[in-house]
Structures are given as structure tokens and as C-alpha cells.
Amino acid sequence: MKVHVKHWSAVAQWRWNTGNNNDAAADDEGDVCGICRIPYEGCCPACKMPGDDCPLIWGQCSHVFHMHCLLKWLGTPASKQQCPMDRRPWVTAERKVNNNVGNAAC
Amino acid sequence: MVSNAVRAQVAAKWQDSFARLNRSEPGISGLMAFSDAWTLATEFLKPCDLNDLKSRRQYDMRRVRMAFDTINKCRRLPVMMEVFLEDLHKSQHLIAREVESHMNLYSGNSDPEIVRALIFRLVEWYNAWKPPAELGQTIISAYTLAFQTHLFSILPASFAKGIKSLVAATLLGTVSQSSDQRDSALWLAFDTLSLIERYETLITSVGYEYVESHVHETCAGAWSEPMLPKLRSWMLEKIVPWMIWPFARGATNAEEAKTMMQGVGSRFDFHMHKRLCDLRTKEIFDIIVDFPDSVPALHDLKECLQRVDQRAELVQSLRRANRKRLLHPGADTKDILLQYVSTIKCLRIVDPPGVLLFKVADPIRRYLRERPDTIRCIVASLVGDGESGDSLIDDNEPIHPLQQPEAENYADPEWTPEPVDAGPDFRANKTSDIISTLVSIYDSKDLFIKELQVLLAQRLLALKDGNLDRERRNVEILKIRFGEPALQVCEVMLRDMTDSRRIDQHVQSQKPSVMHPTIISRHFWPALEASDMVMPGQFHDLQEQYAKEFSAFKPDKVIRWHPHLGRIQLELELDDRTVEADVPPLEAAFIELFSEKDTWTVDELIERVGTVTRSAALKALGTWVDMRLLKEDSENVFRLLSVAEDVTEVAPPKLGMTSLRIYLLCSRYVIPAVGGEDLPPVISVQQQQAEQMRVYWKFIEGMLTNLGPLGLDRIQAMLKLARGYDRTIEQLGSFMEAAKREGLVTVKDGLWKLGK
Predict the structure, then answer these.
(1) What are the RING-type domain coordinates in residue numbering (chain A) (predicted)?
(2) Are B522 and A30 a contacting pair at CB < 8 A?
(3) pLDDT over threshold 70, residue B695
């Protein structure tokens, strides 16, 4: 017998590829933004729509925040342009496209 | 010894009396004349027996009159009257006999005509014994009084019944306009015997009863037209002409009659209103069921209530009917809601300030609050779930934002105080629309928002044609009602749908795929049932491919599948036939596995797809058995039918061994399927709460282990320290009760401790 799939309306959810979410597959809670304490897949307090409208920003220090949250933080004089988690100067990381995409779909 | 003085006194008296009787006639001729006159007069007045006509003598009226004159001149009339009344008393047995014989007859056949005859006969007696008019009013009224007193004393109890039926007969006669002259004579006779005064309440009650039966006959169940005007004109045409006899006799003109009837007339009018009001009160539940066809009846009721103060009865009757007919487990929640909405609309007609409604609605609302699916029903009707024709919402009703109860504005010139019979918690909600009222059953609208999300999620995921217009429209309508922020989440859900479409278009343009997934933003969708299912074979490849394309399109994102959701269209190519099927993923996964080898046991299958429950697996297999693609060869072992087996063998008429088994098998799968098939992929609010509570159970368990038995409030206080704990102590209480039922904890003297 041969099975031909003609149409598949599936359901999936998207996640930010924060680099460590392959291990976190079991951990359903997901990570939260260190500034607003809202999950990455949620949106920062200023936004209404999650996803592309409220993207993440990756730092070289390996910390990840909602972009809006971080920019707001960096905009305050108290920030001294440092990462709020480790107080190192904030440097936005270059994103390696397509890292471990193959494992992502589990 | 008699003294001289006494002697003289007696002599003087004698002289005086003699002089009076003799009237200074010569000798004793005056005395003689008086004696004659006395004899004649008393003889004339003496009551005679009407039945014994021979004994009656004819009198020369001139002589009789002269005799009275003589007596009067001698001032002996009072004495004569006494003698007459004495005679009257002695003759009473004649009347008593008459009454007795008539009443015996009446109790035999209950014919009111006998009573009528009796009354006429009594009048005959009365007239026969009546002293002539020239004796003066005093004597006649004394006679009448004596006659009536005696008459009333001998009338038996059954006479009242007789009178009643007789009066009823006259009433019928008047109403049917066949009244004859005898009726008018009868009323005259009643008057003569003063029966009207004596039996006034009885006569009135005849009228009342007639009005009542008429109201019942004409108005019961007739709700589609206003009955009051008809009843009023009926009263005017039928009852009033009859009432003139007993209550306005002797009126010389219409004006006078009107004045005389005023009191009794308004009593009758009141009575009619009261009867109608009683009737409608009794029928109120059905009237509400019939709404809006029954609007005229409601207007009638409103008018009656203004006249008759029966609001409390109405409330009680409706509450009783509701309790008996509506608020029981047999009634559908949707029906209860429908009836509640009708009740709101109906009672607003009857009582615009809403006091009645408030009192009636309270038990309904309380009951609805206890039903688990109330919110779901309301929400379904909010979004116009057009399954059934009778939606709760009137489409014509403009959409308003939900109203919050507002403080009273005393500066408002239109302000009126609360109605007098309003209870202490009465809140006037004059303006609020039906939906606001329904939503206000619950204290917060958050529950609705949550349920709305669940419902929307189910509908979106079940969407087949991808037409979002309807859902978008619903969300827009709901935004007006609940406000924009509350529906933000729904907005995101809708956007996920369109985004998925766009992404899919892009992915398909890069690399065509049969997969068309809906990619959702978690945190914004209600919790989906978790599943660790793994799709086997080509399905897994498809998923991986798509995920790769997706990540190429959105480099920062990855997707994670919910493999158990969605639907798959398959074409199965077998040795002798091709079968098309549209099935859930689990079914597809199983049939895919059967393409690897032909025979599988249930346990093997389950192992290959990850964790699914056994009942779900059996159900999925049952689907294929029904389609005659699989066959259960022996217990839990299924075989692919690459070549179709003889259909007739399977057909029910020839219940061979195999078919019987399949038949039984199917029914075995169908039964759990009732719950399984329709089960929403999205977890309901309740389940979600239970899910959350499971987390807190860990805390409670720890607490009880470390601290020993604890009271409920202590547990609550400690749980409050936990993040995100928002349960009330009542909710905690019911949770603990549930835990107790499962044997996890025991309670003693209000202290909870872990079970063994």
C-alpha cells in the first residue's frame, strides 16, 4: 500500500531561536526577557503584537532581550551602555543564520 | 284593705277609659259601637290561610274603614296592632308549612324555578296579610318587620343555595338577553321581602363567579390579543344591565342609577381585573415562553397590576414556575438562557423600573452561575454562533459597550427614587442591554474573555476554507462590547492566521509542499493539549522539510509542531482500490505504519507514535476498520486488507463471525469516540485551572508534610506567597474537597492532612 498525502493542515508554534532552545524543548515555560520578565515569544510591555513586530536582540555576552526593552534601557543614562545582566559593554551579536535549523523541528 | 284613695283612683281611671271608648255617646251606645268596630277590625286583620279560600270572608271595605276610624278615635290602634301581631305570630305555621314543602321539593330536584315559585308565593302571603294602607306607615312597617323576622327565622340553610342558583339563572337570562318579565317581577318580589339586603353578598358572589368563569373561558391561553378592552365592553353590555336589578332598583333615571351603582360597579371592575391578573399570574411562565407573540397579554397584565396590587404574587408564581420547570438538570443551558432573556424582555414590559425582574432574575442568575457551560453558551451566542435559529441576541439591537453599574447621579433632573418595593440590593439597570445583563451574571468579565479565546481558538483551528472574515467581524463586534484591550489576544490570534497564510505562500513558492500549517504564537493562544506524539515515516520528513524552509524564511525563528492537531487528506493506493480519506493525524500515522508492514499489534503501533492513550489509539484504528481498510484478526492484532474482503460478508444481514466482531469492535470504539471526537483540541478554561492547581498541589503536599495538619485559611495564606496564585479560599476549598475524594488528603475538625 502506498500512502499519498494530499493536503495537511497542521498546527505548529514558532519560537525564537535563542541558541539554547533545543535543550529547552522539554521545558515548556520558555525563557523570559531579563528586563521585562515577559517570555521572549510574548511581546514587550510597549507592544501589542508578538513576533516580527517585537523582535529580540542578541548580545555578544550571550544575553537576549526584547529589542525594545534593551533599547529603552540603553537610552537611560544609568545604563552606561552596559548589558543589564552582566554590566559588560553592550555589543549586539552578529546572527549566524541557519544555525542548527535541522534540529529545531522536534 | 283597699284604701279610699285607691278606690277613687280606679274609679277615675275607669271613668276616663269609659269616656274615651264611649266618646260621649248616650248611654253605652258608644261602647257598643266600639265593640263592634273592634270585632270587625280584628277579624279583618286576622291572617288567613291562603290555601283555605272558603274560610275567607268578603268584607265591606266601607264598614271596615269606619271601624278603623272608630278605633283610631278611641286611640286603641296600638292595642289593635299588638293583637294583630299576636295573631300573625299564631299563623306563622302556615308560612312555615309552605316554605317547608317548597324546599323539600327543591332539595329533590334542585330546580331554581321552585325557589322562584316559593318567593312569589311568599309575596302572596305577605300581601294577603298586609294591613290596609290607611292604617298608617307605622303599622305596616311593624308588620313587615314581624313578617320578615319570622320568615328569615324559618328559612332553611338550603334556601341560600336556592337563591344563589335562582340569581344565577336570572344573570344568565340577562346575559343571553332572553330575560322575561318574570325576572323583573322576581326582583320586585325580592325587594318586597327584603331579600336583596339579606342576600346581597350572595348576589354579588354570583356576579363574581360569573365574571370569573367568563374570564377563564375567554382569556385562558389567549395571549395574542389584548383582552382587557373586550372584557370591559363585555361587562358594560352584559353584567351592568343585570346589576341594575339588585343594586340600582328604584332609580328613576340613568344618572341616579349611575350614582347608586358606583360602589358596586367599581367592586366588580376590580374583581374582573383581579381575576384576569390571577389568571395571567398563573400562566406567566408560558406567556414568557411564547414571547414575543404574547406581548398583548403582558400589556394586559401590566394594566391589571396597576389596579390590583399582586406584584408579590406574580414574583412568587414566576419563581415557583421557574424552579419547577426551568432550573433543573434536565433543562438545556441554552434554553435556560433563552427563557431568561425572554423573562427580561417580558418583565420590562410589565414593570419598566425592573423591580420585578430583579426579584425573579436572582434565582435564575444564581443557578446559571453554577452551570459549567453557561459562559460557553453566552459566548457562543455573542459571536452569533448561527447553529440554531434562535439566537439570544436580537440582531437589530445596536451593539453597546458593556455597561458598568454606575453611581447614581443625583444632579440629573430626570432622577427618580427607587421604587418602593425594591429590595436593598436592587440596582436599577434601565438602559442596559441583554448582553450586558447576561455578562453581569458573573462578577468579572475576564471569564468571558478567556472563554471567548478558547472558542475563537477552536473555531480558527477548525477552519477549513481559510475564510477569516466572519471571525474578524465577530472580534470587531466584541471589541465594541468588551473594549479593545480585552480582545488584544484575539487580535494576535487572527494575525497569526493571516501570517501563517503569508508564510505558507512564501514557503510554497520556494519549495511546494502538501503541508499548510497554522503557526501560532504561544502565550496568546489558550493552552493547547500537550502531546508527545511523533509522526512516523513520510510525515516526519514533511515536517522537517517545512521547518527548514520556515527557518530559512525567518532566520531567527524555529517552529515546533503540535503533531496531534490538524487534519490530513490522504489517498491510499491499495492492490485493488484507491481510498481517499480526511483524517486526524493519529489515524494518518497509523495507516502510514501499515504501509511498512501489514500486521501490527496495538502496542507496537502505540510505541511507534510516541505516547498516545490506548483508547485514542483504538479509536483511530476503529476509523480504519470502519472504512474496511483494517481488520482485527485476533485481539489487538490488526491486519491491512490490501485486497478488499467480500463486502457481503461484512454486511449486517449476514452476521457471520467476522462481521459480528467488526460490528462489536466498531461499537466499542464508537462509545469512547462520543467524547473523543468532539473533544476540542483546546483545553477548556476549567481544565486549565485544574492544570494550574496541579502545580499548587505540590506546594500543598509539601506544606502538609513539613508542617503537619493545617487549616484551610492557613494553606491559603501560605499559597498566597507563591507566584501567580490567585485562587479564592472557596476555590481552594473545593480543590481540597476534590483531593479528599481522590484519597490524597483527609480532613478532621477543619484540619487537612495527607492521606496514607
Answers:
(1) 44-87
(2) yes
(3) yes
